[in-house]
């Protein structure tokens, strides 16, 4: 039973909602094609996922999330910021001046 629980946690770490995907792209001023290219997934995968008409395989969700994160997007999980009410979201990471 413990093994199943760990597996769920590992999968949830790469969870991405369609709204988070759209928000992350907006923060970066990326098109769906930009995300598809960065994540190395098909454009139809990104389009269908963001419209809610397609459920990509877990590897594609992971690739999309990682592409957005590598570009500077930080995802906020439900309850991750106790002082801030609200649900899931996305924001840009703070970047220190060089």
Please provide a brief summary of the model.
With 98 residues, the protein is mainly α. The chain is built from five helices and two strands.
The SSE string, one letter per element, is HHHHHEE
Low-confidence stretches: 1-12
Computed over alpha carbons, the radius of gyration is 14 Å
Biggest sheet: strands, sense, closure?
2 strands, antiparallel
As a percent range, the share of strand residues is: 5-15%
The number of helical segments is: 5
> Could you report the average pLDDT, rounded to the nearest whole number?
81
**What is the first-to-last residue Cα distance?**
48 Å
- What sort of overall outline do the alpha carbons produce when their principal axes are compared? globular
> What structural category arises from helix and sheet content?
mainly alpha
> What is the helix content?
40-55%
Question: How are the strands ordered across the major sheet?
Answer: 1-2
- DSSP, total strands: 2
């Amino acid at each position: 039973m413990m093994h199943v629980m760990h597996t769920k946690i590992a999968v949830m770490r790469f969870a991405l909602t369609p709204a988070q995907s759209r928000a992350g792209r907006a923060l970066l001023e990326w098109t769906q094609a930009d995300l598809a290219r960065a994540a190395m997934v098909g454009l139809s995968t990104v389009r269908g996922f963001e419209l809610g008409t397609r459920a990509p395989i877990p590897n594609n969700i992971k690739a999309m999330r990682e592409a957005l994160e590598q570009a500077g997007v930080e995802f906020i999980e439900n309850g991750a910021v106790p002082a801030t009410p609200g649900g899931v979201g996305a924001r840009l990471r703070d970047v220190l001046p060089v």
